[in-house]
What we know:
Layout: H1 3-6, H2 10-26, E1 30-38, E2 49-56, E3 61-67, E4 78-82, E5 85-92, E6 95-101, E7 108-111, H3 129-139, H4 147-166, E8 170-171
Antiparallel strand pairs: 1-2, 1-8, 2-3, 4-5, 5-6, 6-7
Amino acid sequence: FSKKEAWAGAMADLGVHKADLMRWLIGDEVQEVAAFISCFEKPGDVDDNAICILRFKKGTIGTLTASWTYKPKEDNSTIIYCEKGTLKLAADPDNPILVEFAQPGRGEATFEVPKLQSNEAGGQSSSGVIAAFIDCLESGHAPTINGEEGRKALEIIIAAFQSADDSRVVQLPL
């Protein structure tokens, strides 16, 4: 919970992954960021809550929230509202991927996926990320996802902090 040791809080812990996921799902890059970031509850001097509005280059608008204070339990859901329906990821524990169709009578569809990583009891399992990293080091193969993708997600988080600090919309790339 210390800026000196960690630079940021919930945005670096959770927000960067949500930014990465949004870029991947939408297939576009973020152009503008507006954010409110604060610390409400956790000790120390890093953020524990953030709400951001992202505008993508092709015009899509999305919200990114990162919080260490959800009660009674954490919320890692992602919801995408589309022209033909809504896609809900990790919003329902019984249906990890839920598609709700806008067309009357069409209903919904569900898809099974591996368990989402969480901090709740039993929520940690091997994702294979560390093993893949070690394999790249040992074999010399290029990683499936390079550092550039991580940098782009981090740029969004940095822009969010600039937005919150200066009370303005920040343009990307920085």
